[in-house]
Design brief:
Elements: H1 2-12, E1 15-18, E2 21-27, H2 28-36, E3 41-45, E4 48-60, E5 65-76, E6 79-94, E7 99-115, H3 121-129, E8 138-142, H4 143-149, E9 157-161, E10 164-168
Antiparallel strand pairs: 1-2, 2-10, 3-4, 4-5, 5-6, 6-7, 7-8, 9-10
Keywords: Signal
Signal peptide: 1-21
Protein name: DUF1439 domain-containing protein
């Protein structure tokens, strides 16, 4: 239901510049809300159960940059480490997969909030060394969700404008 409401709100923001084309503008908050539907994300990594939650999107259209900040909870044997991490990169529309993705993402922030994991220095140092390093592509939004409400329409162009994602159909 939340997905439908977010998509409906997005569609209400449609601007019709000409009869044969239109654009949908998604604000940072709308993108964050759409991401929130897929969170929390849980993964196992080197013996840790890791949970990513509370995504927040920051769009800097002037430099074609998008940043996603998330809370990370790593747990092992009842011990916990909680941190905030930010990843940034450039936006791309993968037409074959019909997804908006962050390409060339890199870790730009890793701040520990709480840590009760014994002997965690090596793990923390490994994570901090990843700052500035390129990460694998990150899936951001599934355009098939919007396509269900607008059958037959495919985005022609996706761009960052100000603090928004603008999708041209």
């Amino acid at each position: 239901m939340k997905t439908f409401l977010v998509l409906l709100f997005c569609l209400l923001n449609v601007v019709m510049p000409k009869a044969s084309a239109f654009e949908v503008t998604l604000t940072e908050q709308q993108v964050s809300d759409m991401l929130q539907i897929r969170f929390p994300v849980r993964q196992s990594y080197q013996g840790f159960d890791i949970t990513f939650s509370d995504p927040k999107v920051n769009i800097e259209g002037a430099i074609n940059n998008i940043k996603v900040k998330s809370v990370i909870l790593a747990q092992q044997n009842g011990q916990k480490l909680r941190a905030i991490a930010s990843v940034q990169g450039q936006i791309n529309y993968n037409q074959k997969e019909q997804v908006i993705e962050i390409i060339k993402p890199s870790l730009v922030e890793f701040t520990i909030l709480d840590n009760s994991i014994a002997q965690s220095e090596q793990t923390i140092n490994t994570l901090k060394q990843a700052i500035g390093q390129q990460l694998p592509m990150i899936f951001l939004l599934d355009m098939k969700q919007i396509g269900q409400l607008l059958p037959g329409l495919q985005p022609k162009n996706i761009a960052l404008r100000g603090s928004n994602i603008v999708i041209n159909f």
